[in-house]
Amino acid sequence: MFDEMPRLNLLSPAALSSTLRNCGSLESMVRGKIVHSQILVGGLLPNVVLSTDLLLMYSRCGNLESARKVFEEMPQRNMHSWNIIIASYAQISLWREALDIYNEFKKTGFRPDHYTIPCVLKACSGAMDLLMGRKLHGCVVVSGYQDNVIVCSGLVDMYVKCGRLCDARQAFDEMSQRDIVSWNVVISGLVRAGYGIEALRLFCEMHRDGVRVDRMTVPSVLISCGQAGDLAVGKGVHGIALKLVLFSDIAVGNALIDMYAKSGCLHEAHQVFVEMPQRDVITWTSLIWCYGIHGRGKDALVLFDEMVACGVMPNSATFTAALTSCSHGGLLDEGRGIFSMMRQHYGLDPSVEHYACMVDLLGRHELLDEALAFIKGVPLAPTASIWGALLSSCRTYNNVEIGEIAAAALFELEAGNSSNYIVLASIYEAVGQWECVSELRSRMRKLGIAKTPGCSWLTVNNRVYCFVQGKSSHPKANVIHEVLDGLSQLMMIHDGAGG
Description:
mainly alpha; two-stranded antiparallel sheet; 27 helices; disordered N terminus
């Protein structure tokens, strides 16, 4: 029918509308434009239905400029046309423009429906507009959309991306129905915020509810396993990935390497790498980093060379992993070469992380004067990570003079960080400068700075237990302390017998 259209003098609006609705890709936009011409020649505008179909056609074909022109020329706009133009801007990450159009929409007397709200919530997430997001939350309640899974998932996502995890969790808990998207949103949000243990608990709840995981769930849960040090659950998720044939997914493979690396399982991480059918720069970088933190710097650099030989271009994160590997592996000359290679061979300007790695590398070789000179030559403003690397090395070699310089810089950058005071105090203690120790502790008290308590956790029967220094919140704390005291006495007896 469409091929005959140019030969027709009169075209029915219904036929034109049907043709426009079938134009949904860039390739079909030529047809759509011909129909648009026929509508104009036929004098069929204004017609709210045809204008809305034109708007939809241009939106689907990615021609936002033409879509906006059609929208602006509409003397009358229906609910559908407003939803299309708002969604068009939100889909290409023009968050503020989408919110501006929504503000215009509110003046028309229309009320947002279950198509409008998710698009505007997406724009709120991208623009970090928590105020607008909260207003939409109120609209959801007033309009009775609390049972709409898509709307409520959008609410959860908005709160997560605006950094309001408590609100996100509350919105999630209040959902009468949940789909895999809503579970993924809240789990990934917890993981990004560093709440690995809480993310794992939620994953276990999801598993008990019989929700089938997908390729979006698995990477987030694996990352949370790495954060929480829960190898048992990580291996279980690995098994789920194999059963669901998700292993070919690069993101899943990368997350597995990361999880095994953080759990101290270098062999398993390498095995995952070997079995991956496809690899990207993140894959290579993850394994390079894995070798580096386990002290196998030379193996990490061999892997770096293999990656380059395979035609994979190293990025900024790759060089951070390579420099970290040199630092942990004591490879001073290799580290200098890697640092120079960044700019000379790949045109990459070193970032703060790369400068911090170099300071750490020099410091580990007791080249503290060179490290200090290196910091002074950094074109960027030295950050806490750079000065922290120097202070840590000064602690290793008990260098008071340079340690005081590094600490002074850190006191300015991180006034409330107790760790910097404690490291400097330990340097004073090591060289017997007790008066300086006393003055530093007095300064901490005046500033109200207290040492952050240490924290550790362990897994028993698939449950993660967290222990904080100075606290006895565990219900069996007394029994645990009795057992520890008994073990300490046994070790003392054993040491005495051995002597």
